[in-house]
Amino acid sequence: MIRRHGAAAAIVVLLGLPANVHAEQYHYSMTARVRPLLLFWISRSGVGDATVTRQRAPEQTRYSLLIGSDPDRAPRRINRWGYIEEEIRGAEAHLIGVMTQSDEESLEQADANLRAQAAGRHPFNVIQATVNGDRATSLVTTIAAPEDYTFRQVRAALDLVRRESSAGKSRVIRLPPGTRPGFLAALADAMHATSASPITYVYHGRLYELRQTRVQKIASFQIGRAWYGAAAVGDFVITSMHDGEQTRFSMTYGTSGSFADVPLKVTYQPRWWMQVELIIDDTGRAPAVADGVER
Hints:
The protein contains four helices and 16 strands. The chain is mainly beta. The longest helix is centred in the middle third of the chain and has 12 residues, at 107-118.
């Protein structure tokens, strides 16, 4: 099954959650499409992995997402990954995120960054945030890793974050009522929202709106030989309330049974020249904080 209860139980212990917290974990395979010219796409499947974990209890909820390319399988040995974790306890919430530093806007810049990594430069961006009632405080820093960590070394990266990310750029913001403490929490709400009203969330001292712009119901969703029951295909848009910038993605998610509110397929285009597709997969080994190759 896609739920890996052994690894999820280990996560519960590592993160200090009560033993009765129900933990679920879902693994996804990644397909990447690159457009070197404006005329066509080049596609390759199996270039990376993602893991979504959620633990839910009456007074606390935790969501995490680990996603990244695998340099052993990705073109040009591209190593891009990120991890984000949101823990919510009543009116308080904590967020931590770490990701490879990658702000390239073209394939040429991506190649230049790969050469920089080969030369021994391995920067990671880190965000740590706290929400307490109507106040959110966040800190963003950059740390240098001793080696080119992959997503399977997320534990080592998080240990480095806790030791070295003490200074950086901070932001404090007052939150309007109903603001969700992070993107993952907002997305969880959006999957079972009954109206098209936007959901407001905070990320690094900025407010964003997440809106589902289109939804189509599916009686039973199939991937390969696996059936996942009733589902919905939705188009989403994220709008920055700071500058109006928009980000769009599409997602198919379960609507009933054991896969209710579980993403099944996600398509996202982070750059004009690159598109990423995640598909739920119970055949691969899920990379996780507690189940990584290196600890």
